[in-house]
Amino acid sequence: MTFLRGFGIFLPAVIGDLEAIERMSYEFCESAAEQGVIYVEARYCPFLLMPDSFTEANFLSQSTGNRDENGKHISAKEVVEAVNKGFQEGERQFGTIVRTILCCIRGKPEWSKDILDLCIQFKGQGVVGIDIAGDEAGEKPIAGEESELRMLDSEDIAVFEKAAELGIHRTVHAGEAGPAQMVWKALTVLKAERIGHGYRVLEDDSIYNYCLNKGVHFECCPTSSILTGSVSVCGTKPHPVMRFAQDGASFSISTDDPTVTNTNLSDEYALCAKWGLTAAQLQETNINAMKNSFAEPSIKQSILEKLYSAYGLKNQN
Q1: Rounded to an integer, what distance in angstroms lies between the CA atom of residue 85 and that of residue 122?
Q2: What is the pTM of this model?
Q3: Are 51 and 21 in contact (CB under 8 A)?
Q4: Name one GO cellular component term (predicted).
């Protein structure tokens, strides 16, 4: 939880302030454009940007207030609208296409139905998917299973099953702090199309081989994986991204909480290059990222063509 303390420094300055949230979203586009990013999927939990929803202790608590400093009620819908407005203006000004994924939070199942409703309401208006994040280790053990195996709240399962029925794209944080079985649960129970992090999938050959055979895409965040302690890179032990690259797994490189980690995408690429990823492998991560994005088909095709052209590669579609 030490990693999360950084949020307690800057989030209080924007929580509940719709104007600040819109401005932050706009500046996100500016920063992405400066890094040469042409498409990005930003994810956030709207409830954590509402007054009284954030606590430094566990990053999860919410009281019943949800009012700004003037006593005005602020809804999760208004937060999404503010974010969308900032992204739309940023896209017009800087050219980077931004789509968003709304996050459920483990341990707060009472938020999940509302988050799915927002995904439905804003589908086609910038929101392209749903996620669930949070501490895997905090989940309850399943009776009859080893103590480290965890279960999801029934509300979260129902929400992701409904999302699948409705064609809402799904990604799940799994196998970062929790065991490889959490990746399996994400794929089979929550119907995940992508896996956030997933490093510990390497601890179970059967699950890992399943992921390789099915082309499961892993969203890797090298810097945060070390800072959170989910990965230890020491001596001759390589980072999981090196194994992914060696085995031809589908993975991409992303920033994770760049304000906290003080990194950008170029830093992440440089770190991976230091570990031994080649330029061709880094190019492949970008192609994999776009292939597995939740972008509209026309946008996906257009950007893939740009990538193949920029890299001097034959379009494989």
Answers
A1: 12
A2: 0.88
A3: no
A4: cytosol
Which positions of the chain have pLDDT values less than 50?
Answer: 55-65, 140-149
CA atoms within 13 A on the CB side of 171: 26
Residues 6 or more apart whose CB falls under 8 angstroms from that of 89 comprise 26, 29
Q: Which two tokens stand for residue 311?
A: 């890299």
pLDDT of residue 261: 76
Taking alpha carbons only, the member of 142, 242, 149 closest to residue 202 is 242
Distance (Å, whole) CA 12 – CA 8: 7
Cβ atoms within 10 A of the Cβ of 257, count?
Answer: 17
User: What residues pair up with 169 in beta bridges, in sequence order?
Assistant: 129
pLDDT at 152: 78
At residue 235, the pLDDT reads 62
Residues in the chain: 317
Q: And the tokens for 245?
A: 């690259």
Contact 101, 123 (CB under 8 A): no
Strands in 68-168 per DSSP E: 97-105, 127-133
Count of alpha carbons within 13 angstroms of residue 292, beta-carbon side: 24
* pLDDT tens sequence across 30-66: 999 999 999 999 999 999 999 865 544 334 333 334 5
Catalytic pick from 22, 41, 136, 176?
Answer: 176
176 has catalytic annotation: yes
CA distance 143 to 71: 45
pLDDT for the residue numbered 11: 78
